[in-house]
């Protein structure tokens, strides 16, 4: 039986550069409108799920979606780019944003992201997971710190944080290579449990270890555009893509479609605009 595994991450809903429907009514009756950039994001988001739905129809497969952390955002370091501090509104926004996903997905898993964004214990991610009746973890929570699953005979190891500090084995292909190298070491004592694919997120920069190691590690792209922090660390001139992954898994084999969308450069300002 063929399984489809769709992976998205870092939607950062409630951020002014995160995902947002064209309009949204808040608890106090105020209606917020998506910015031009957010309308572009929303178009790509709906296009993404249309493509996932088409692949599901074509393959007649069961679709599992893994939402890999930082679903919502209430940044404790700076609230200047937050839409609201009302948690009920934030969870409501999340449910609206993920309507295209829930319409096509058979089973949803939610992993927990960063406390700096999703509050203590990533409670915003947990509240959203409860709201959509996501598949429960082994501990009975609606979201997972670390999720391992087998789909179509392919083993996945999924968590939000890459854990690629300087005190670990280094490999090729950037962060993904370091993740793969570390995990080969971690699973060395129990090779029967070794996953085929490791998924991590958080860095907002795609990386793929390929076939360098027995475990293929992939760091996913986000669905959030550049924040004020990103501009501060020099990311203003880099157009960072957004997107997700779609795996087709069958009898222990898999293929991968990377669905990615890159913003266009702004045009040069000229004196004719004065």
Describe what you observe in this structure:
The longest helix has 24 residues, at about 35-60. With about 270 residues, the protein is α/β, with parallel strands linked by helices. α2 (about 85-95) crosses α5 (about 125-130). It starts with a strand and ends in a 13-residue tail after the last strand. The chain contains seven helices and twelve strands. Residues about 165-170 have low confidence and may be disordered. The chain has helices at about 35-60, 85-95, 100-105, 115-120, 125-130, 175-185, 230, and strands at about 5-10, 25, 30-35, 60-70, 105-110, 145-150, 155-160, 195-200, 205-210, 215-220, 240-250, 255-260. About 25% of the residues lie in helices and about 25% in strands.
Query: How would you sum up the major sheet?
Result: 5 strands, mixed
Order of helices and strands: EEEHEHHEHHEEHEEEHEE
Return the domain count.
Answer: 1
Strand order of the largest sheet: 5-4-1-11-12
Number of helices: 7
CATH class: Alpha Beta
CATH superfamily grouping: Metallo-dependent phosphatases
What's the pLDDT, averaged over the residues?
87
Low-confidence stretches: 166-172
Number of strands: 12
| N/C terminus separation | 62 Å
**What structural class results from the helix and strand content?**
alpha/beta
The percent range for strand residues is: 15-25%
Assign a percent range to the helix content.
25-40%
Radius of gyration: 19 Å
Q: Given the C-alpha coordinates, what overall shape results?
A: globular
């Amino acid at each position: 039986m063929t399984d489809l595994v769709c992976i998205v991450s870092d939607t950062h809903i409630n951020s002014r550069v995160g995902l947002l429907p064209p309009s949204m009514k808040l608890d106090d009756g105020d209606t917020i409108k998506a910015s031009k950039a957010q309308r572009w994001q929303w178009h790509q988001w709906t296009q993404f799920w249309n493509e996932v739905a088409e692949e599901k129809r074509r393959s007649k497969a069961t679709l599992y979606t893994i939402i890999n952390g930082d679903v919502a955002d209430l940044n404790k370091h700076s609230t200047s780019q937050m839409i609201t501090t009302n948690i009920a509104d934030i969870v409501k926004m999340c449910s609206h944003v993920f309507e295209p996903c829930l319409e096509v997905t058979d089973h949803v898993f939610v992993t927990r992201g960063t406390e700096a964004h999703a509050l203590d214990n990533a409670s915003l991610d947990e509240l959203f997971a409860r709201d959509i009746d996501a598949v429960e973890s082994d501990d009975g929570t609606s979201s997972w710190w670390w999720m391992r699953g087998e789909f179509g005979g392919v083993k996945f190891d999924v968590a939000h944080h890459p854990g690629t500090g300087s005190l670990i084995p280094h490999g090729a292909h950037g962060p993904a290579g370091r993740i793969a190298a570390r995990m080969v070491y971690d699973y060395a004592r129990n090779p029967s449990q070794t996953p085929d694919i490791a998924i991590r997120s958080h860095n907002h920069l795609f990386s793929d270890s390929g076939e360098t190691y027995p475990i293929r590690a992939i760091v996913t792209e986000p669905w959030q555009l550049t924040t004020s922090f990103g501009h501060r660390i020099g990311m203003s001139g880099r157009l960072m893509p957004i997107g997700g992954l779609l795996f087709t898994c069958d009898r222990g084999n898999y293929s991968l479609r990377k669905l990615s969308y890159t913003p266009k450069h702004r045009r040069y300002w000229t004196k004719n605009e004065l």
